[in-house]
Amino acid sequence: MPGTLYLCATPIGNLEDITYRCIRILKEADIIGAEDTRNSIKLLNHFDIHTPMTSYHEFNKVDKARYLVEEMLKGKNVAIITDAGTPGISDPGEEIARQAIEAGIRVESVPGATAFVTALTMSGLPTRRFAFEAFLPRDKEERGRILDNLKDETRTIILYEAPHRLVKTLETLKDTLGNRKASLCRELTKKHEEAMYGTLEEFIAKYETEDPRGEYVIVIEGKSFDDIRKEEIMRWEELSIPEHLNMYIDQGMDKKTAMKKVAADRGISKREVYAATLEEK
Question: Of 40, 213, 194, 15, which Cα lies nearest the Cα of 113?
Answer without folding.
Answer: 15
